[in-house]
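Lecture 7 notes: from sequence to structure.

We start with a single chain of 233 residues. Read the sequence below before looking at the structure.
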Amino acid sequence: MRPAMILRSAFRLSTPPLLAATLTLGATLTPGATWTLGAAIWTLGGASRAQAETPAAPQAPVSPIDVPEPEGFWRGPLRGYTPKTLKGARVIDAAGLARLAESGAPVLIDVGPADRRPPALGPDAVWMPAHRTIPGAVWMPGAGEGTPDPAFADAFARRAAALTGGDLSRPVVAFCHPECWGGWNAARRLVMLGYKNVYWLPDGVEGWQEDHALAAAPADAEWAKAAPGAQPQ
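Now the structure, written as tokens:
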């Protein structure tokens, strides 16, 4: 019998937020067998602990398989694996979006976050971030938050109504980036507002960019009034 091979790997994790963590995985691989995870050690702030403390805020699911749809909106960190479905909406890919665009004029809502000026950048340095998105999309940074704030919900509803002309049957596509809950939340909000043809593009801008061109877009001025803190700075 061939001897088992011991493989070790280390990689950086981005969660929990504001917490630098290194997870070292020891794995035993026997020919013809499956991976068996060995020891896992969290290194937090330079000190090793057997187990990380549970953060107060909800964390995005870590498994890309069968992530369940939350009740209402996802209110945890927006970066993380998302469900494969969205009740009341249709999941679409870049090819499907191209076909949809050919058959009509869907409203495209990009809820991707805005860039922030790097703290290390000097006050006299030029800072001119450019957001690139799917051509024709309306960029509403921060609109993918899962906040229950009534004022936020009302502002989103009013902006969606203005973009669709109040037509609840108008196709609307919400998106962000891959593995981002922002587009999912925005599409969910549209469904809850009664829109009948809601689409969610989970591959986001990057999925479209694989075979299509992007275009620079400014932040939507009307939405900026509702979410000033989410705008480019």
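DSSP finds five helices and eleven strands in the chain. Keep this in mind for problem set 3.
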